[in-house]
UniProtKB/TrEMBL annotation:
Belongs to the EIF-2B alpha/beta/delta subunits family. MtnA subfamily. It is an enzyme of class 5 (isomerase). It catalyses: 5-(methylsulfanyl)-alpha-D-ribose 1-phosphate = 5-(methylsulfanyl)-D-ribulose 1-phosphate; 5-deoxy-alpha-D-ribose 1-phosphate = 5-deoxy-D-ribulose 1-phosphate. Catalyzes the interconversion of methylthioribose-1-phosphate (MTR-1-P) into methylthioribulose-1-phosphate (MTRu-1-P). Also catalyzes the interconversion of 5-deoxyribose 1-phosphate and 5-deoxyribulose 1-phosphate. Part of a bifunctional DHAP-shunt salvage pathway for SAM by-products. Keywords: Amino-acid biosynthesis, Isomerase, Methionine biosynthesis. Its EC number is 5.3.1.23. The lineage of its organism: Bacteria, Pseudomonadati, Pseudomonadota, Alphaproteobacteria, Acetobacterales. This is Methylthioribose-1-phosphate isomerase. Gene3D superfamilies: translation initiation factor eif-2b, domain 1 (1.20.120.420), Translation initiation factor eif-2b, domain 2 (3.40.50.10470). Substrate binds at R53, G54, A55, R90, Q203, N254, K255. It comes from Muricoccus pecuniae. Pathway: Amino-acid biosynthesis; L-methionine biosynthesis via salvage pathway; L-methionine from S-methyl-5-thio-alpha-D-ribose 1-phosphate: step 1/6. The record marks C164 as: Transition state stabilizer. It comes from the Bacteria.
Amino acid sequence: MKINGKPYRSVWLDADGHSIRIFDQTKLPWSVEEMVLRDEEEAAHAIRTMQVRGAPLIGAVGAYGLAMALRRDPSIENLERMAAMLNETRPTAVNLKWALDRVCAAVRNHPPERRADAAYAEAAAICDDDVETNRRIGEHGLELLREIAARKPAGEPVRVLTHCNAGWIATVDFGTALSPIYQAHDTGLDVHVWVDETRPRNQGAALTAWELGAHGVPHTLVADNAGGHLMQRGLVDIVLVGTDRVTREGDVANKIGTYLKALAAKDNGVPFWVALPHSTLDMKVRDGLAEIPIEERSGSEVTDATGRLPDGSVATVRLAAEGTPAANPAFDVTPARLVTGLITERGRCEASEAGLAALYPEKA
């Protein structure tokens, strides 16, 4: 995607050929700042503190982190130790473990002196795979948006509600849930996006609205609790979200608040679609509610908020009374029965074991 007309991926090798560069997402949307990650500890810190976030992107950064670790110590013991360390940074998104496992498998049979190079090559392949996967997700989702547009009166846009950020900044490029929207916009389809703010970290307000605006896609920021109201009044044609993990039976783990959007969509007859790459499938898990670990983040994310002050400076302010305890589950699970369907790089399917098996027989 482009920033001020210049195309970017969200992670790329630095000029030294070993370090990687990312955008510090904690600084968006107030400033666009690149940062260099020079070793596995800096990669782990960036993932843990959400300087990089989004399931596909943290997988890619984790893969490069493992490659950087092998430059220092190419032993199998270090490979396994660093893979475990990186995997612990974000437990809910399965893409991270998938990427780390893929790097481990790619380097094990190489002699020590070749392992780092093999790891870098595999990390680059993971990035290229993510870009092509997301492009294809966009194509299949675009077909869905065109079908909706064909049923609408002339001159009315396709109105999409999305939650959290599943755009290019959450992946290596294109995004998952936003990829169909970008492709619709770029082909001239009239589309408007309702952007949930996505408390408590406000990924919708800070990231989705920022990147949609940078690309010229019409959008409106709304409070998280406005989605049901918009659906009741016929102002939402489709809910389109990303995901951090999809189970064998089609349950979906996504940013906290997604489940409530699915309930409202079901009550109002609004289709609820989930966009995902193959790396987000976890066929080892059947019952998402019982088996997917839900990350519990610091309560300060709920009690405090960061924003720009009138003088242009960025500051964090307290929202709640001192001493107020806060719980902060970062994700929830939407049962497959509430999901209209899944959009993957191989096409669309129902959120069920049979639907996923039809598209991914090798995984089933």
